[in-house]
């Protein structure tokens, strides 16, 4: 019997062997490759032979793609020999040999297809990114031997906040949090004993090994890091003593308190440890709040209803049979906070945010563009709950049929995008938001129910919105008493949020040009900046949006009457 696992691998295979009471033989793909002809094949043969002799046994091949890559166009001689040898050895395993073969990979598409034939790797087991509940179980296990001060509620909150973390990532997070506590310990201890004085190196090593025991880590894994950290601290001296050092607690008690891993240590660790599922993409949890977005109350309300409320009150939506939209399309002139609002709703709903510009997905290689779209959606699913944001979607989802033969790269990419959106389910936890200022270029098939269900028409800011935007962008600018935000809002008719941000910056620059030591920015500087910054061309984009809305309305009416337009699916 053989099975292949791609994600969540080594510990599961080890547990399987332990539960079966079988001997475990491990093959690490990259390490088995020898420098002499026939050496790698012989090593593989020896492991299989030893496993049969020690039956019952489990053979675990880690990173299978390193020794059995797909044989394309001949391939390298060693790869061909290794694949042939592995196939032969697998075929020789009989039912009475009592040997189970387990392999692991995170690159399933790179495995030679011959290995997946029935009788070889009979089963494929995909282990996805852990759910919040699974992450909570993993954290409880990891923290059981760690000296920490986290409450049950804080551990649960940490589990929900670590989107995309696998077991190894959570272990790295705990290790980094422990290092953060150590840095605090060294800072306070060395400030109290004056680091520039003499110190006993051997005593330091002993103390660090004692710390390992306190935290529940192996000496080899943490002590080496801490020793290097201690050595690097010799060039620094802290003069401020912590409250713990000044207290009357015994030294042992103070050390124990200093080495306690706290919630703040985990917050700092989260800023350094990047989960595996996010490493190949620019994925983040944005730190943007609704108060950072000026105006646009109507659009904010729609985003909250469509995304934020379903995340906060899923039971209520399920009870009433309300299905949140899979996708939202934001149309409007440039600089009207479309991207900022998408980031804000992700932050407020505590969802991961994956942003990509439409044209970035195109590749000159055949099939790579479609693969990029598939990979993007797969990453979003792995890091759910997540918002997948397509900026400039007009560069990706153009109206079909413009290619010379009707099947251009753009047509194939659009078809792949439609297929991926059709595959989204409410339980997956991925919402797609797209933004464009050229809706006339978008294929209307994207607006079919189940794709971009909701159209958000982002208008330029009115006077009240502009005053709000000025208030946001002048928060960190010292303004004189003569600066009236309402007056500035009246003077900037037709300006977008991006234009107003530029006005505020130019006003500060104008003040510096007048006097480098000037304490405040005056109204005269703002008026000078308004004269220099021209408003964006709103009319062109507003006319495009109006025509697009009419097209959408006509398409909806035609669909209702049973009439199918050329571009509708």
From TrEMBL:
Keywords recorded for this protein, A-Z: ATP-binding, Nucleotide-binding
CDD domains: RecA-like_CDC48_r2-like
A Pfam entry, by short name: AAA
Keyword ATP-binding: yes
InterPro entries per record: AAA+_ATPase, AAA_ATPase_domain, AAA_lid_3, ATPase_AAA_core, ATPase_AAA_CS, P-loop_NTPase
GO cellular component terms, semicolon-separated: chloroplast
Domain AAA+ ATPase per the UniProt entry, residue ranges: 8-131, 324-462
SMART domains: AAA
Gene Ontology molecular functions: ATP binding; ATP hydrolysis activity
Keyword Hydrolase: no
Family in the record: Belongs to the AAA ATPase family.
Protein name: AAA+ ATPase domain-containing protein
């Amino acid at each position: 019997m053989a099975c292949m696992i791609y994600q969540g691998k080594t510990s599961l295979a080890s547990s399987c062997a332990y539960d079966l009471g079988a001997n475990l033989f491990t093959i690490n793909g990259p390490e088995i490759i020898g420098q002499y002809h026939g050496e790698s094949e012989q090593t593989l043969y020896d492991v299989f032979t030893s496993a049969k002799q020690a039956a019952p046994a489990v053979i675990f091949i880690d990173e299978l793609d390193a020794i059995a890559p797909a044989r394309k166009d001949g391939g390298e001689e060693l790869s061909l020999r290794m694949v042939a040898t592995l196939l032969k050895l697998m075929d020789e395993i009989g039912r009475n040999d009592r040997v189970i073969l387990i392999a692991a990979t995170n690159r399933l598409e790179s495995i030679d297809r011959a290995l997946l034939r029935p009788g070889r790797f009979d089963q494929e087991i995909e282990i996805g990114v852990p759910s919040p509940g699974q992450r909570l179980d993993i954290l409880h296990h990891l923290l059981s031997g760690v000296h920490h001060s986290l409450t049950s509620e804080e551990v649960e909150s940490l589990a929900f906040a670590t989107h995309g973390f696998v077991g190894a990532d959570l272990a790295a997070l705990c290790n980094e949090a422990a290092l953060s506590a150590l840095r605090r310990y060294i800072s306070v201890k060395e400030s109290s004993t004056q680091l520039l004085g003499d110190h006993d190196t051997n005593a330091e090593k002993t103390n660090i090994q004692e710390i390992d025991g306190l935290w529940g880590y192996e000496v080899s894994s943490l002590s080496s890091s801490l020793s290097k950290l201690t050595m690097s601290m010799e060039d620094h001296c802290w003069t401020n003593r912590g409250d713990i050092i000044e207290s009357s607690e015994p030294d042992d008690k103070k050390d124990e308190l200093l080495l306690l891993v706290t919630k703040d240590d985990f917050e700092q660790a989260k800023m350094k440890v990047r989960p595996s599922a996010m490493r190949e993409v620019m994925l983040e949890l944005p730190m943007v709040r609704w108060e950072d977005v000026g105006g646009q109350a109507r659009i904010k309300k729609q985003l909250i209803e469509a995304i934020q409320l379903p995340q906060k009150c899923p039971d209520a939506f399920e009870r009433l049979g309300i299905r949140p939209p899979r996708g939202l399309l934001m149309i409007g002139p440039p600089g009207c906070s479309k991207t900022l609002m998408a980031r804000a709703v992700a932050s407020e709903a505590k969802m991961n945010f994956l942003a990509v510009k439409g044209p970035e997905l195109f590749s000159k290689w055949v099939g790579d563009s479609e693969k990029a779209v598939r990979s993007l959606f797969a990453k979003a699913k792995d890091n759910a709950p997540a918002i997948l944001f397509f900026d400039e979607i007009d560069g990706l989802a153009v109206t079909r049929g413009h290619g010379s033969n009707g099947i251009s790269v753009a047509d194939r990419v659009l078809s792949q995008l439609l297929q991926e959106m059709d595959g989204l389910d409410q339980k997956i936890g991925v919402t797609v938001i797209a933004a464009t200022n050229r809706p006339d270029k978008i294929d209307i098939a994207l607006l079919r129910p189940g794709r971009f269900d909701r159209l958000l028409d982002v208008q330029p800011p009115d006077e009240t919105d502009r005053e709000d935007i000025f208030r946001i962008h002048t928060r960190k600018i010292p303004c004189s008493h003569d600066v009236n935000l309402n007056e500035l809002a009246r003077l900037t008719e037709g300006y977008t949020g991006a234009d107003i941000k530029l006005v505020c910056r130019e006003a500060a620059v104008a003040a510096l040009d007048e006097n480098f030591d000037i304490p405040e920015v005056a109204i005269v500087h703002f008026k000078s900046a308004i004269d220099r910054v021209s408003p964006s061309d709103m009319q062109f984009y507003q006319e495009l949006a109006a025509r697009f809305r009419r097209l959408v309305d006509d398409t909806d009416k035609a669909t209702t009457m049973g009439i199918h337009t050329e571009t509708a699916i």
